[in-house]
Amino acid sequence: MFPTFFLSGFECSTFVWKDQGRRDLTRETRHAEHAEEDYAHLRSLGIGVARQGIPWPFVDRGGAYDFSTLDPFIAAMNRNGVLPIWDLCHYGYPDDLDPFDPAFAERFAAYAGAAARYVTARVGGPHFFTPINEITFFAFMGGEWGWTAPFRTSEADRHALRLSLCGADIAAVRAIRAVDPGARMVHIDPLILVVPPRDRPDLADEAHDETFVDAFYAWDVIGGLRHPELGGGPDILDIVGVNCYSFGQMEYREHGPHASLPPDDDRIRPLGDLLTFAWERYRRPMIVGETSGLGAGRPAWLRDIIEESLAAVLRGIDLHGVCLFPAIDMPDWHTGEWLHNGICDLVEEDGDLRRVPFEPYVAELRRWQKRLNRVTELDDDPLSDPVDLADIVAAAKRLQMRSDKDWS
């Protein structure tokens, strides 16, 4: 499906955040001003696919659209031969909408169709879209934890928000495919593990349900396994994108976000096991939709992710790529401090944000590109030679990776 096995992307949240009002992470990271540099760097790294946001709250004016802010990104993508996965709703929606209102799905579908018309006319195919990013996590943030709009704080509201987002997502897929019948969808949510506290074995059922029921509920609806009246199905689910972070393995908390497990916790499960569970549930093409380490741990984290991914490939999963996300650093949503989780760090300098590649991370990427027989720099026509997945399977067999719980 993709010209390269390694993908990347840019943080593009547009949520209304607690007491800070509307946020625009593309602006906060100066991605628009540095679009040419950012995409040229991906080209030099041999990364031919990038997740790129379309900021729904800023382009939709009551059903009238202005997509001109996308033009610098489109120009940079086209010049550098990088294929976008268009992210249509990254936690943000227009101020005049209520996601619990049935009109929400209609408005989102109309916007999705308009966005598809704009970008497919300007960027060569194949065309990929993520209609609503991380529906499950979005529902927690806005429906139960009160971090973002709509600022609800109950489990019932979380469930209602999740179902509303699923319905809007399915409607958007149909609107996009009315524009481009061959468009592919990448539905992205976190892949997690939740365990009960050691002194609360009575919470084992709750932890299990969150891991193996809640975490998959949105994919189930989009794939037609739940609420078939919404029109989901395997063709709507299409590609399953699983986000894999170390903090995705957690100890259950009855109120608020769960607590991340430390790397040496004996309750950690190998990522290969979780990847295989997701594959067996849907039997759809998969990518690791986001993954990154933090600080100096980025190279070791990349090594662990690839080893676990190859171990899962040996078990038969249909894995089409690993997305090193983000390409450039991003701020912690809560504190504003730079996370140092990108391929490039951002350094404040003369009122701008200078891109500084984290060379140990790049070196680890290069090591895996060579081991997997992948390109290390894009040629003039990256789409002319898409990834041969037989190479990935052959590498998995040659390297004989085995899942383990030793995560960095």
Describe the secondary-structure layout.
Blueprint: E1 6-9, E2 16-17, E3 21-22, H1 25-28, H2 35-44, E4 49-53, H3 56-59, E5 60-61, E6 64-65, H4 71-80, E7 83-87, H5 103-120, E8 128-130, H6 135-144, H7 155-179, E9 184-190, E10 193-195, H8 204-222, H9 234-237, E11 239-244, E12 249-251, E13 259-260, H10 271-282, E14 286-291, H11 298-314, E15 319-324, E16 344-349, E17 352-357, H12 359-371, H13 389-399
Parallel strand pairs: 1-4, 1-15, 4-7, 7-8, 8-9, 9-11, 10-12, 11-14, 14-15
Antiparallel strand pairs: 2-3, 5-6, 12-13, 16-17
In short:
With 408 residues, the chain is α/β, with parallel strands linked by helices. Helix content is 38%, strand content 17%. The chain has a single domain, classed as TIM Barrel (Alpha-Beta Barrel).
